[in-house]
Amino acid sequence: MSIKIKDLPETERPYEKLELYGEKSLSDAELLAIIIKSGTKGETSVQIAQRILKLGKNEDISFLKDLGLKQLMDIKGIGKVKAIQIKACCELAIRMSRPADYRKVKIKGPEDVAKMLYGEFINSKREVAKVLLLDNSNMILKIQDIALGGSNFVNVDIKEVISLAIGVGALKIILVHNHPTGNSKPSNADVKFTEKLYTALSYFDIDLLDHIVIGNMEYTSVYQYVQELKNKDV
Prior knowledge:
Strand order of the largest sheet: 2-1-3-4-5
Strand content: 5-15%
Number of strands: 5
Helix content: 40-55%
Order of helices and strands: HHHHHHEEHEHEEH
Shape: elongated
Number of helices: 9
Distance between the termini: 73 Å
Radius of gyration: 22 Å
């Protein structure tokens, strides 16, 4: 029969261990067990957490943010409430990776954007597109998810981008999307869409500052990429 959390020595119980030694002393499974809170008749919360983490195979714990409520609820021992708690914690982690008030952040180049958003794309299995809406001084007015795609594509609605920009009075825009493969090299489709979006925005006197592709802790500016290609052809 499986041992219960309350039968473990206090120094091995997640709650007590955190209180005694601090949160950094806990393993990923122990931290997740605190969120799960209770186990089942056959497993402790730690054992359930360990089983969940095995779903990530060799990946780190960030794969959890890509699991939907239904996927979490399909795991034995995880009901609706526990699934919602896990999703809420994942979203908090994502939001904490951003500056406390991103509206006070001035974008000076692609690196600023990449550093700000790495945490939101890491280990994502699907392409996600975001727009940074900026004022004339490159200060962020708003960051908005604009599209969710598959493992190797994302369709962005240009009309929606324009509507968002006009809605907040943005004069400049930066488009950002990820490549789940980890390779940030822009595809031909990425380059063509960038040109199409640039032209569409120009009719409304809105400047597309850049289109940045995020990979595995790397990024590529589509503008810089195109310029490099042109220099090679010279």
